[in-house]
Amino acid sequence: MNALATFGLWAQRNRWIWAAIGVLILWLVLSIVTSRFSLSSLSGVILSASFLTVVGIGQMFVLTTGRGNIDLSVASVITLSAFVALLTIKGQDANLAIGVVAAILLGLAVGALNSLLVVGLGIPAIIATLATGYVLATATLLSNKAIPGFAVSPSLKDLATGRIGGVPIMAVVAIVGVAVTSFVLRYTVFGQLLSAVGQNRAAARLAGIRNGRVIASAFIISSVLASLDGLLLGAYIGGAFLEMGQPYLLQSIAAVVLGGTLIFGGSATALGTLFASILLVLIVTTMQIISLPPGAQDIVQGIVVIFVLALAGRQALARRAPADLADGDKGAATKTRADTATALPK
After folding, report:
1. How many Å apart are CA 325 and CA 163, to the nearest integer?
2. 167 - beta bridge partners?
3. CA–CA distance from 342 to each of 207, 336, 339, 345 (Å)?
4. Are 36 and 289 in contact (CB under 8 A)?
5. Among 46-50, 178-182, 308-312, the least confident range
6. Among 24-33, 145-154, 163-172, 292-301, which range has the highest average pLDDT?
7. In the chain, which residue ranges form alpha helices assigned H by DSSP?
8. Buried-most residue among 11, 102, 205, 254 (CB within 10 A)?
9. Which residues are CB-neighbours of 48 under 8 A, at least 6 positions away?
10. CA-closest candidate to residue 226, choices 62, 98, 95
11. Can you give the pTM of this predicted structure?
């Protein structure tokens, strides 16, 4: 087996490598074609990507549960959380703990609502979370009217914008989050349950896994991370405004899928989400460097998202088709044995 084939097999197990290669290539190109791009510029890109990584990790948990599950409420959660932070913290470090608790409670409440709609009522996730987003948008409008000012807690501002030895603190937070998530996915029972549910819910149910609890946990994690991200993002920009979380809606999905998480669930990579977040921010930075109009930037980002989702969808179908056939045969055999056992006299 030659080196190329060996690398191909390794890359199939470590799908994050493609996003990492994309980051390296695009950074090298930008460094060559413009003198304005350097290591310090890359540091700023990583800072921006850190906020996308945090919400992307939450989105990754939801996608991993399979069945096309997706959380479209994250954008509204981010925006509302930033407003809630302004209302509770009021620019004072003494109120910082209250603001953090409020953000966590907001995430828990939204996650619980999404879980009720998706797991309890059986509403498709894309519809349920979209409806939740509209409800949160109304709450954001009401919060906007109640905002007395845009004072930000100094400590929270330092966390969102500060640096340690030239490295953004938010980048450290994102890397730690990726490391913890990778550990959870690979070495904990919850990570194994999450993958099992995403790969085959019927088999997971037969194995005694409570699918509903696992799926509900994923939605709660997504909402809590989005809420904490909104808290930090508000401190980073120095306030809150309507639709501030909107860019993170499609970008969080693209970062997860581009990073190597299977769109049909069952397999996730937090490291890939980090690299893909950096790559997406680099793409936006490239368009800004060449002075592409804002409308054209949105078109390019939309094309990138469509391309990524289409490619991921084809790859996922190719991967799942043989497994689905095998599962179907096993399911038929299981059903036949069950029917036979039922027919036997007691």
Report:
1. 52
2. 164
3. 20, 10, 5, 8
4. yes
5. 308-312
6. 163-172
7. 3-13, 16-33, 39-64, 74-89, 96-115, 125-146, 154-161, 169-187, 189-199, 201-206, 211-237, 247-258, 270-289, 294-343
8. 254
9. 281
10. 62
11. 0.85
